[in-house]
Amino acid sequence: MKGFQTFLTGNSLRRIKIHSEWRVLDIGSGHNPHPRADVLLDKDMAPSPERGGFPSLRGSRPFVLGDAQHLPFKDKSFDLVLACQVAEHVEDPVLFCRELVRVAHRGYIECPGALTESVLGEPFHLWLVSRRAGGLIFKRKRRNLKASDLFYALFYAGQTRAKRTFTLKGPSGPLLRALSLLLQRFWRMPGIRRFTYTSFEFQGEFHVLVVG
Questions:
Q1: 138 phi and psi, to 5 degrees?
Q2: Which DSSP state fits 55?
């Protein structure tokens, strides 16, 4: 379609079509803001395990310090809002989703899927998020579902995370790096990422169910 470009979006690298004239907000932009975003918003700029140990990256685009549950923008200020790896952190999922709908005409939400939370679960993730009947279900995490310390350490080899990871220093570094990249590539394969990521596009209001 004329005026649209396709962008790899989120950790899943899902292909999203974005019009050249759209005004785009990236919530939780972190250290890797979306290349098409016009405005970036994050809760802080400090290095964090939630961002792999990196600080938020501002660059030349407008950067706003703010809360995703109380967005400092007028109604329908944006044509598209992107919220990748954010929903699993929020205290109030209903308020968060309402704010996305309020400030933008359409949006894309992405967060870890059930498989990712089961083997790569983080202690600061509050919710298991899944799709259902044109909406989202937020199920409260009662405990950390991470099943394998070895898998976690290898998947995030060389990164600063909330838990221990393999260092890439020493003679085994190149092999560990190669295995880590192979796992990450597998995690994003089209036939696999339906289990590893929850991806949801919306236009207008959608149903939100909170469990627990």
A1: -110, 115
A2: P
DSSP assignment string, 106-171 = EEEEEEE-HHHHHHH--TT--EEEEEETTEEEEEE-SS-----HHHHHHHTTTS--SS------ST
Whole-number Å distance between alpha carbons of 33 and 201:
19
What secondary structure letter does DSSP report for 43? S
Any idea what the Cα angle at residue 9 is, between residues 54 and 45, rounded to 5°?
Answer: 25
Q: How far apart are CA 117 and CA 100, in angstroms?
A: 24
CATH topology classification for 4-144+189-211: Rossmann fold (3.40.50)
Whole-angstrom CA distances from 179 to 46, 127, 153 are: 29, 29, 11
Residue boundaries of the structural domains of the chain: 4-144+189-211
Indicate the helix (H) or strand (E) that contains 40. strand 39-42
Single-letter amino acid code for the residue at 161: R
Q: What are 190-206's pLDDT values in tens digits?
A: 999 999 999 999 999 99
Beta bridge partners of 78: 104
Q: How far apart are CA 199 and CA 171, in angstroms?
A: 38
Q: Tokens 């202690």: give the residue.
A: 123
Q: Is the pTM of this model over 0.85?
A: yes
- Name residue 19's beta-bridge partners: 4
Contacts of 28 (CB under 8 A, 6+ apart): 41, 42, 43, 68, 83, 84, 85, 86, 89
Which pLDDT tens digit goes with each residue over 113-155?
A: 999 988 898 889 999 999 998 999 999 987 765 557 889 999 9
